[in-house]
Amino acid sequence: MTVTSWDDYPVHQSADWIAHVATSDRNFYDRYYFNAFDTGGEFMAVFGLGQYPNLGTTDAFVTVRFGEQQHVVRASRPLGDRADMRIGPLQVEVLEPLKRLRFVCEPTEHTVAADLTWEGFGPAIPEPNQFIRNRSRVTFDTQRLAQMGSWSGTLSVAGEDLTVDPATTWGSRDRSWGIRPIGEKEPQGIYRDTYRPGGMWSYFPMRFEDHSIFYICSEGADGTRSLEQAERVWLDGRIEQLGRTEHEHHFSSDVPRLLDHSTVRFPDAGIEIEVRSLLPNYIALGTGYGLEPDEWNHGMYHGPDTVVQGKIYQVPEIARIGAYAVVDHAAQFTYDGHVGYGLYEHAFSGAMPKYGLE
To answer: Does the structural domain 21-185+196-355 have CATH classification 3.40.50.1370?
Structure first.
């Protein structure tokens, strides 16, 4: 399919059809990410949808941490018209760009059903571009927008209806696109001998009563930083740069590499934020983020028909392995009398001497 519905809109960025992206890199992707959590810590849901034009696939997932279980519904199919964002029971709908979106997981034999509407809190802002080159190959070249907001609608897990109220059901979202490793594992060739030092990823978008703060710190084992963001965003759209940051992370005594609280400092702005985990979601299990690469990975081809699967994980059984990859916590953030809530996302890979990780 060459001519598709999006070709009737003035959105082209190259001399090619919308179906053909400007790079032939197999790892080009275009993705929605959302989280929805109860500010009291009752549940933490993460869901998203991605398109992979050069792999010819599209997939989506929802994972809900509720009690001591994580419930997953995931779906994949070949990619056709890129305006079609329905994959089996899962769907993303843009109701009002940059303000209101809808996520649906229709009821099936699996354990999650949802019909949730996002309402943005403040503007959607650009995040810094992430660019990483491994020898001669570009492995990351991504762009993202981010926004805080709240949810209304319905969410059911294992037959139990959870309370979704915009006053207490908050979240963050991002839209990202570009190049990052996806799909089935590639032959490594010379790259198998590439030394990969450890490091830390931390991403904390947080919402307060009249503003949001967006914090990113991607730091290598040697202390070098490949990506940083420290911005306070007011509801009228003003963006205040908060300067270079410092971090002090504290790990759970029960689960290695799992954070339970942190302190993030912005010395130039005189701000010190205390972070406390409310409920972690081990999103790397079952959703495509990397811990089950042979079973399910973003962009993986599952055949010519739509595939829909459901999984139920027992949290005590997956926590230790899940903490070795990306973990998304619902969290409380406090500073200078402000109390807010947001996403407490982290990953520690390999060595991180600052925190005694080998």
So the answer is: no
